[in-house]
Amino acid sequence: MAEIITFSPAPSIFGNGALEKLPVQLQMKGWKRLLIVTDPQMASSAIFQRVRNLLRSPFAVEIFDQTPTEPHSSDVDQKKDALRKDFDCLLALGGGSPMDFAKALAIVMTHGGSLGDYEGEGLVPGPVLPVVCVPTTSGTGSQNTQTTVFTHRGVKSGCSSEYIRPALSIVDPELTLTLPKEVTRNSGYDALMHSIESFLARPFREVKERPILYQGGNAFSRPLALEAFRSIWSSYREAVAHGQNREARWHMSLGSHLAGLAFSHSGLGLVHALASSLGGMIDAPHGVCLAACTVIGLGYNFPSCERDLALLGSVSEEIDRGALSRVSAELFLAKIQKLIKDLGFPTRPGELGIQKKDARILYEKTLGQTRRIQTNPRPLDEELLSHIEKGI
């Protein structure tokens, strides 16, 4: 088992107004031929126009604005041959989908083949075209991670490689002020669960070494995850209810950014594994699937992470910090369930059309989510199937 912790944060600039730093940062790296990767909605926004205005001469800019909401590997394969190959970098503007799409394009534009050829861990053979991320949501944290997520053969999967960690990210909370309520809710829950599952991740000494830094909970990831959770928990409801609240947006952007950095060094767990499997079955937004799978995932893991759940509860200031007990851990789970209901999320997969007869399919697809389950705090066994059956 591992005895060494590796730290590999991506360079980033954070804060209100950070977008204005983009041109000088690109010039410092000598990048002038840019492909902006975004989606149709963002391409018609004032944010997009700001970016275009910033990237005037000496930059030569081309636009790809057809990123789908939930990318499939075939979406990338269909586009790669139609794009030029002589860009200095790809600039992803938007939420998780454009950032993941840009990473995926960088792989196949550099190394050829189909995206499915690189599905899994450590299969990218070398450096790729640099990716610069400008997130406009507070959710995936993809601007910090070494993973691109896509649906392949009916399963929400992905590719993980240290070669695809972004070369630079610009995180400006002001870009999230006009984010719609539903997107704020869905992306915010993803960030919240990143912080929780990173903090709960199996200790790194119990995780076998891998080609990527999903190395288990460690002295770098756990403080980041805890601070990410603190920022998100204190601002999530307010950001959903009052999107123009600049302080709430600032804390959500910070929390999402830190959570991405944390889990890219620790890995995630069962809630994300279940949600990715469920998402591949019904093609629903990732945040919605996470909410629907939370009770099953955290309930199964409870015996292995009771104290850490209680500690998260104490950080949320809902529980007495001096009483880290089973009762306080259960109270924290109740708070999470209340949050899910209050925000109008589905509380179980059954509310998304999944039936008890589908339990084994969900179970088997989840077992295949090796990127996530290797760092889950509790090893998966047949008992999980009964949790799924009851939880549906």
Give a quick rundown of the structure.
The protein has 392 residues and is α/β, with parallel strands linked by helices. The chain is built from 14 helices and nine strands.
Mind explaining what this structure looks like?
This protein has 392 residues and is α/β, with parallel strands linked by helices. It is built from 14 helices and 9 strands. It has a 6-stranded parallel beta sheet, with helices on one face.
Write the layout of secondary structure elements.
Blueprint: E1 12-14, H1 22-28, E2 33-37, H2 40-43, H3 46-54, E3 60-64, H4 73-80, E4 89-94, H5 96-111, E5 120-121, E6 131-135, E7 147-152, E8 155-160, E9 168-171, H6 181-200, H7 221-241, H8 246-266, H9 270-282, H10 286-315, H11 326-342, H12 359-367, H13 370-373, H14 383-391
Helix pairs in contact: 4-5, 6-7, 6-8, 6-10, 7-8, 9-10, 9-12, 10-11, 10-14, 12-14
- First CA to last CA: what distance? 36 Å
- What fold name stands as the CATH topology of the largest domain? Dehydroquinate synthase-like, alpha domain
Strand proportion = 5-15%
Number of helices: 14
The CATH homologous superfamily of the largest domain corresponds to: Dehydroquinate synthase-like - alpha domain
Shape: globular
Count of folded domains = 2
Q: Assign the CATH class of the largest domain.
A: Mainly Alpha
Summary keywords:
three-stranded mixed β-sheet; 14 helices; alpha/beta; Dehydroquinate synthase-like, alpha domain; 392 residues; globular; 48% helix; six-stranded parallel β-sheet; 2 domains; Rossmann fold
